[in-house]
Amino acid sequence: MNVRRSAAALAASAVLCVGAAPAALADTPPPAPSAPPVVPSGLFGKADPSYDGVWRQSFALLAQQTVGEKPAPQAVDWLTGQQCANGGFASFRADATKACDATTVFDTNATAVAVQALKALGGKDAQVKKAVDWLKSVQNEDGGWAYVPGSPSEGSSTSIVISALAVAGEKPAEVKSKAGKSAYDGLLSFQLGCSAEPASDRGAFGYQPADGKLAANADATAAAVLAGLGKGTLVEPATTDTPAAALPCPAGAADPAAAAQAAAGYLAEALKKDGHLTAVTPGADQPTADTGNTADAVIALAATGHRQAASGALEWLKNNSASWSNRNPAALATLVLTAHATGTDPKAFGGVDLVAALNATGPAPQQPDAEAQKVENKGDKSSSGNQNLWWIIGAGAAAGMGIGILLSGRRKKNEL
């Protein structure tokens, strides 16, 4: 679990604890913690889905679709069944037959990634529109979003929502709050500018201000790169390579794309030290490798066309991500998307078949229809026969006319 989901879990816990405050102050002991919910058969992963059920399902379905797999109907149905009538998603609803109400803790992050997955799957326009409309309805006055609607905006959630809006066909610059602030106004307010200290943090994005000051946050920065470019987590591999650059100072006019490039420059520089990002986990006093945010950073650098800047971290992920991603559908899906963004084979990622490992954590994808496959094969044979016939005719004509003929074979479309 990366910082994004840890923060989400803490935020949800905080909201739930507010409602439980009177009980905590009573003289009677608090009730024993309830057992974790039973993991539904259509859901990927076996761990407690309370805080990341929709998140990991969305990533798993998006990754399967990206590599040409057709997700199982029950897996897709589970995700669509989690959507509330107003269009929003909670992190997880154990009983989806029960209508969402005032006690439902909605999750902008889960809703945003569900939008990306459902858009990629196709045929879910109604669900996507409802989710997008809900996201617009919970935009804060400053133009940004919080993980839990009604809370102060933060960099990560604002970025994730903007990516979802862009993927759904919206123009983030035109999505404005009641106060007239656009989604990009909200996003750019989290970037550390030319006055930030240390200077190495300039260009990064922060999560939320502490005592009025923003601190560089790798998770928020990687997400902001995609948001600034108007892209989602599914990034097509770049065909060219450009060097990453730091935030130019003095900075020019506020521009989302330029902000994304500056954020990518920060990530590229941060990766140089160890070849990966680090973070201090709760209870620890020393930083450890942050595999999740390293993968996010590689995707961000690929999106900005900085292939060389991402190469070292990509190799580190190939050699060091196995334990982090073991039986973890969200992690495996993130690595599949990392491989796709960098033009790497996800079925041979550091000796691991990420696609097979992901499929093993949930409902098996659909197999190609046997009858359709027969028709396709028959069509290939017929086409080949026709090609042979025309080759003979063409060769005879060429011999008679003294003209050489250049023959080319059919090219098969590469499956992603």
TrEMBL record:
It comes from the Bacteria. Keywords: Membrane, Repeat, Signal, Transmembrane, Transmembrane helix. Residues 371-381 have a biased composition (Basic and acidic residues). It comes from Streptomyces polychromogenes. Coiled coil: none annotated. Residues 1-26 form the signal peptide. This is Terpene cyclase/mutase family protein. The lineage of its organism: Bacteria, Bacillati, Actinomycetota, Actinomycetes, Kitasatosporales. Residues 361-384 are annotated as: Disordered. Residues 73-173 form the Prenyltransferase alpha-alpha toroid domain. The chain crosses the membrane at residues 389-407. The keyword Transmembrane applies. Gene3D superfamilies: 1.50.10.20. The keyword DNA-binding does not apply.
